[in-house]
Structures are given as C-alpha cells and as structure tokens.
Amino acid sequence: MPHPLLDPRRLAMLHALGLEQAWVPRDALDPAELAALLPPLPGAAAAPTPQGRRAQVSDAPGATRGTPARDAPPAATERTERTERTERGHGAPVPPREAPAARATPAPVNEQRLQQVRSLAWEPLQAFTHDCRACKLGSMRHHAVFGVEHPQARVMVVGEAPGAEEDRIGEPFVGAAGKLLDNMLRACGLSRAGEDPVRTVYIANVIKCRPPGNRNPEPDEIEQCLPILQRQIELVRPRLLLALGRFAAQALTGSAEPIGRLRQRAWDWHGTPLVVSYHPAYLLRTPQDKAKAWADLCLAQDLLEGQGA
Ligand code: URA
After folding, report:
1. Ligand 1, closest atom to CA 165?
2. Among protein residues, the one whose CA lies closest to atom 6 of ligand 1
3. Per-residue pLDDT of the chain (309 residues; tens, 9 = 90+)
4. Is 0.85 surpassed by the pTM of this model?
5. How is residue 23 annotated by DSSP?
6. Ligand 1 site, residue 160, Cβ cutoff 6 A
7. Phi/psi at 242 (nearest 5 deg)?
8. Domain map of the chain by residue range?
9. Which CATH superfamily is domain 143-306 in?
C-alpha cells in the first residue's frame, strides 16, 4: 500500500494539473518505495527522468507541495530578508535550461595567498586552514570547519559559513539546515558519508570560521578564505559544484546578482559545471521555495547525467 501522497491516482491527477511534485514527509516512505522514486543512481544507465517521477523529501511532516520553478509565475515583489543563511529570491524569469553555460568569473582574491594555498596538497591545506589567522574570525572560533567527506566526491556542495553547532563540532551543516541538506542529497541518491565517491558528496563552506552572532561573512573574510575553497575544488575535482545560498553563489559565479537570477543556469567554474540554489536554512524559513530548490537539484542531476556520470 503506497503512502497516500504517492497514490498513483493522486499522482496522475497532479500530473494532469501540472502539479506533479510532492514533498513527502521524510519518514513516510519505506526504503523500497523511496528507492523506486529516486532518480537513477549516478553511473547507472538510465532513461531520461521525467520530473514527475522524482519525489521531494521534506524536513518535516506536512511540508509544502509545489510545482517546479520553471512552471511557477515570477514573484511580483522582491523578498528581502535578514541575510544570515538568507537568500533574496525575486522571482526573475529564469533562463531556459537549454541556455549555454554561463561562464563564472570568480571574484578576484588575494594573489599572494592564492599562490601559497595553490601549492598545498590536501593534508597541508587542512593544516593551513586549522592554523589560519588571516582574518579576525581566526581568533574567535572553536574550530575551523574545513569540510567533509569524500575527497574524491563527484559532487561538491558549497555553503556559506559555519554556525554555532558547526563551530563547536568542526563539521559543516550539522544543524537543522544540515538535516534538510541531507534529505535533499538523499533524494538525489547522494549522501555526505560513505566510501563510494560516486554516491558521496564533499561539503565545504566559503568561510571556514564562524562569523560571530551568525552575521554575514564580510568581504575581507571571503577574500581570505576563498583561495582555500578554490584549492579544495581543484583537489577534489568534482564533476559538479552545487553552490547553496547567496554567498556561495556569488563567490563562485563572480556575479553580484541575487540568487533568483543565478539559479536555473548551468554555470561553468573553470571547466566544472556549477549549479546555484537556495540555502537550506532559507528553505526552512521559506518552504514554498523548496520546489524551486528541487528544480535546481533536477538541473544538477541532468548535468551529471549529461556527462554520462
Ligand atoms: N550553513 C552553512 O552555510 N554552512 C554550514 O556549515 C552550516 C550552516
């Protein structure tokens, strides 16, 4: 007996209405049901995946349902919010998925530091990060949060900065936003933990140390930290980058545009496809935008599949 949200007749009706995506409470599915709904595992030969076959897994029971962003009308007004882990989505028309890759022009970084960091291998880079005092955050942190998990991951997720829990534990995305991120990844057949680089992502932040009071990262902090992230990307060599939130999106694309204008495009970060989406913390506060985030994950999945990955 399928979960009521997954009843075939209900799904057919939603499909007919153009509303085929459902956010399903995380624990509502048994593993077999979930496996049947997930996109094909990376590396598996698969037929093109209709959007409607993919279930969205929410962080909480009763979470919202929605249509993919490309079906949604642009929002009339720009939403401006507190920006710690916050996006400003203004609903500008998204470019068509077929649009050619937009070349990212990453923000200029401190050249000398860039050269120094560029010479480092993985473990020295970790040590360099843990010892770093290049900005004021270095003296305030409990832990510099370098990243997890698989250093040869196919997909690399880039967030903004550690929060209080991340600073305490030394791992990115361990709070509520992290749980939602884990669910989003799980819905794509990915996870942060595991031995298999095909199924495991690497998660890092633009900023490695917690900004006090969860304020936004400041430009000098981003400038000092960006070379470390760039080196991490060079060493992980992911097949796809997923930038979550304004700071990651702007740092990697080099654009000052709001997130609503950066998402739903295939960017090119020095030869690596880059997809931009909303930060999970923003999605926790704005669940109606989860459908857009889902559309972004579908774009990421399409790009991976397009690489034959
Ligand atoms: N938000 C982020 O962007 N990164 C974290 O590690 C935690 C919350």
Report:
1. 7
2. 172
3. 555 555 555 555 444 444 444 444 444 444 444 444 444 433 333 322 323 333 343 333 333 222 223 222 223 322 332 333 333 222 233 344 455 577 776 555 567 888 999 999 999 999 999 999 999 999 999 999 999 989 999 999 999 999 999 999 999 999 999 999 999 999 999 999 888 989 999 999 999 999 999 899 999 999 999 999 999 999 999 999 999 999 999 999 999 999 999 999 999 999 999 999 999 999 999 999 999 999 999 999 999 999 876
4. no
5. E
6. yes
7. -125, 110
8. 143-306
9. Uracil-DNA glycosylase-like domain (3.40.470.10)
